[in-house]
Design a protein that fits this description.
Number of strands: 10
Structural class: alpha+beta
Distance between the termini: 58 Å
Largest sheet: 5 strands, mixed
Radius of gyration: 23 Å
Shape: globular
Strand order of the largest sheet: 1-5-2-4-3
Amino acid sequence: GLTVIFHQDKTTPMAMVNIMYNVGARDEEENRTGFAHLFEHLMFGGSKNIPSYDTPLQNAGGECNAFTSNDITNYYNHLPVQNIETALWLESDRMKELAFTPESLEVQRNVVIEEFKQRYLNQPYGDIWLKFRPVIYSKHPYKWATIGKDISHIEKATLDEVKAFFYKFYAPANAVLVIAGNLEFEAVQTLVHKWFDDIPNREKYIRNLPVEPKQTETKRLTLERPVPSSAIYMVFRVGNRISRDHYIGDLASDIIAGSHSSRLYKELIVKEKKFTSISAYISGDMEESLFVISGHVADGVSVEEGEELIWNSLNALKIESINDRELTKVKNKHKTGKVFSEQSILNRVINIAYFETLGCLDQIDLELDKYDRINVEDVKDFVDNKLKLENASILHVIAKK
């Protein structure tokens, strides 16, 4: 049941072995969150036959890392091509069965708890999204962050719960393996059969998540925090990563607040001097994505005034629309970014695994074309229909005096 993709690259002496598991924070139980992220760490704590993951890989001249999101968990290995079998041996053994020792769980549990405290509880603005997500989402599991909803969920995780999570999600049928480098197809095929054939094909996980109701009115949250300056977060729900919304929203975010030449930067920072920072981006999630505008207001400016100024700028954009020059500029920025990112073999294999997990690998080389087909009317319609008050969730963070 394992999906394997070979990407031949004869220009590099290095090889990549990347495994993307189709499991993220959205697949957790609401009273046991943070497990996908915990497993990002546990997978390096030793497997049944290999007590240390890092040591053999480092001895082979390689390095590894991983990341988790609400949608997926990804592990990658980068090593000299002649040593690729080391990475396949390591990945196959931990896909088959982890060590599942109380000691490993305790070590990684403490690492995750410290990360939770350091990144989310003990730094300015750190808990913003922990508090804001449940406002944006009422039913969908995107309402908790990848780190988890509550630190107690990881503190109370048992070895039996960890084992159940592993066997449910870390199965061949729930994974995409991408191998890249100066190799030949037949050799790769032989190695994959050698190391992965004997892994049991456990029952395939079928995702059935609650659907988030359509938003029809503004949602609001106000927090008071000991932060350097007051801030505003405005979030709008838009289409998923492969929808037309994503590509239009990506360009619109750059026009609105993606650089020093963007509309909001020139208006609210350079001209009005009401903000000290302003940005916009699209989250690009596999299900419903978020279009985010955030900024820090200048001293003496209230969050209410700051929000009104953002709305005024958005409304002006709806009336004046944008011009072809603005749109061409951000399209060129995306083209340049795409070309440079493709120079990295790591970026390529992650993109291949991601699009295969999305179920649309055939679309991977059509992204620039999708951006090219967007015109100024498309952007205007997006701003008119998506960036409106009834589709907004708004957070005011007020700095304590």
